[in-house]
Amino acid sequence: MIGTSFNEGWQARPKVNPFAELSGPSVPFRPVTLPHDALIGQRRTAPDGQVTMEGGAGAYFPGGVFEYRKVFPVPEGYRGKRIFIEFEGVYRDATVFINGTYAGQRPFGYSHFHIDADRYLRFGQDNEIRVEARSHRDSRWYTGAGIYRDTWLFVGDVVRIQPDGPRISTPDVDRERAVVEVVTTVENDSIEIRTVEVVTEIRSASGAVVATDTAELTVLPGEPASARQRLYVREPSLWGPDTPALYDCDVTLKDGSGEVDRAAAVFGVRTLQLDPEHGLRLNGRTVELRGACVHHDNGVLGAATFARAEERRVEILKAAGFNAIRMSHHPMSKAMLDACDRLGMLVVDEAFDVWTSGKSEFDYSLSFPEWWERDIEAMVAKDFNHPSVILYSIGNEIPETGSPAGAAWGRRLADTVRSLDPTRYVTNAVNGLLAVLSELGALGQRAPEQAPDDGAGINTLMSDVGDAMNAISASELVTERTAESFAVLDVAGMNYAEARYALDRGLFPNRIILGTETFPTRIDGNWRLVRQHGHVIGDFTWTGWDYLGEVGIGRPQYLTPGGPKPSPTAPYPYLLAGCGDIDITGHRRPASYYREIVFGLRSEPYIAVRRPEHHGRTFAGSPWAWSDSVSSWSWPGFEGAPVAVEVYSDAHEVELLVNGRSLGRRPVGEEHRFRTEFETVHEPGELLAVAYRDGHETGRGSLRSATTPVRLTAAADRRAIRATGGDLAYVTLTLTDEHGTPHTGADRPVSVEVSGAGVLLGFGSADPSTEERFDATERRTYEGRALAVLRPTARGEIRLTATAPGCEAADVVVTAE
What we know:
One of its GO terms (molecular function) is hydrolase activity, hydrolyzing O-glycosyl compounds. InterPro entries: Beta-gal/glucu_dom_sf, DUF4982, Galactose-bd-like_sf, GH, GH2_Domain-Containing, Glyco_hydro2_dom5, Glyco_hydro_2, Glyco_hydro_2_cat. It is a single chain. The chain is α+β, with helices and mostly antiparallel strands. The chain folds into 5 domains: about 5-155, Jelly Rolls (Sandwich); about 160-265, Immunoglobulin-like; about 305-540, Glycosidases (TIM Barrel); about 605-705, Immunoglobulin-like; about 710-815, Immunoglobulin-like. The strands form 10 sheets. An 8-stranded parallel barrel has the order 22-23-24-25-26-27-28-29, surrounded by 4 helices. The longest helix has 17 residues, at about 405-420. It starts with a strand and ends with a strand.
């Protein structure tokens, strides 16, 4: 079945009690175009004026119940057809009504699902579909709400290919040929036995047919049947991160009267191998996973999942040196999977953040026992044809993993995944501390030689969350309690437990480990472990891209004599977690360049300057918090003030010059954690870092102070975009001097006006703490930058005009084709 977009013509509003509307509508519907986040436009407040973990988890956005409706015609010619409506994602507890009648539901907010619609439709008339969605204290991060992913209308005959289409695998591959197995499931809702021809063609990227096969298939009424075809592609182009070659597969059903149905899929040819010596091998070569954990929100767009937004994130993450994404902690969108296939990004797709033990008052644990299997089936059906997907994760930091019952649940989930897709590996992101949380008291009572950190008590361990997680994870208690949960997996996913890497080489010689979640501040040591140990296949930092919610876990904090202790949750109006290598606008922060150097992908030194207003204070940020540094030498008002300059490099030593005056050379490189610091005073002009290896210069990096006057510039990521298909234009607004140097210390409000064939979809900055809204037309820049996102509404030119006090207006034109 081929789907057509069902995104247009919707309306949305907060749901009201129907009894309150007996005298007429009390809350009007407003037009929306899907994908749509119903929560991002709501007013944020601190609950009862207090800072709470629950409020901070969702970025202080309120919960709510929202309803969507759409009126659409159904032609008389559709009578006798099978009609399905697909929702790629509705957050959360979606309930669907067609013409006032209940048609289906889905509690999980991240599964795609189909509504069997034809039985409720009125042919030759207009029909109404309504969707209700709820979001209320049911997650540990910002989820958004509503129909936040694409919707599709599928129309087919009673004999048809299932909506998820053919499933394609490559079980046998060498240089000469690849065996491509295509399994096409056909359904028959007629009352007759039907025999059809399944015609399958495989095309290369150039469009040439490289393999074809025809098979007869008899389908009994009400009993789906599958045609399993083995095709052979000669001299296959292999899919990999550096060469993401893709093939098209077209399947057509035919009978004596002609074509009955058709379906299309994209796939790649590649092999996977796994062992403790070589680690993970892709197409026969070991690949170390340079991983980024990523939440699903799209920053200024909230949870709305537009195809271009997902593609842009993958592009930027790959350019920053990552070769893998772990979708945290839910199944990845179809649009991002497509982008990962095209661009060559490996994927760990994750099923759940909770099983039977809840982490929030109203989370998915309430539905898990009844719905988990259908949601696993949906994830695998979505991922099966995508060569980018190499691992399924069945959970994240599941408390049950430290118990026999939890291990049994893990085996049940892992076996279900394998039964649906035996071509990939299964992991589970286990946090050793949470797995034994109920027994931490017993851990503290153990003999000193059995307790972590030479007998340190739990209170001492908890003074540093990073050391605590590591020490407890390496304890004998965790070894015992998690042994069975790890044994049911192909890859032992470990969150914040690098202390186990070398330990488990001796304790569990067949165990293969993946750092499924690690502190960004420890990447140098973690990456050394990945390189040293064949059984450790990679590292996934928390996080690659900053996100809404879990506010302030990565914010810089400082000790104040007599002041409050550092807190894991920031007060309102904090908005962001603040721990991403890349901020929510797509701008790379200093941690991103440091990581690139650690990975061995950058030879030039990188300079970051700590904010001079905090000079001399004691840093007390969490292990998720990078230093409070900015790649800038523009600090108006701090001329002559002391300042600390960080330089990152893989060289042996680095020299720093301020306006040509040398501050000397300092050792750097791996033995010094790839970083060094210089103390100086701020002098406007130029900072220059020169890297040396064995006395020879290997690279330079510099920063220049911005000069006056301040200019406002507008630059689109692309001058031409598609008018359909979820494409967007991203316009970066920057305050600069005449040479293009960013004015990071001259922030001011910027207003935008959009005209022509598009609308302003979102507008914001990376300010971690603000009451400004993403649906406004004025935002203050942060560190000299803001981001506007444009959505095309028709073919033609879209013009954005930006203005700021003291600056000439800036224009940019994008053509929607």
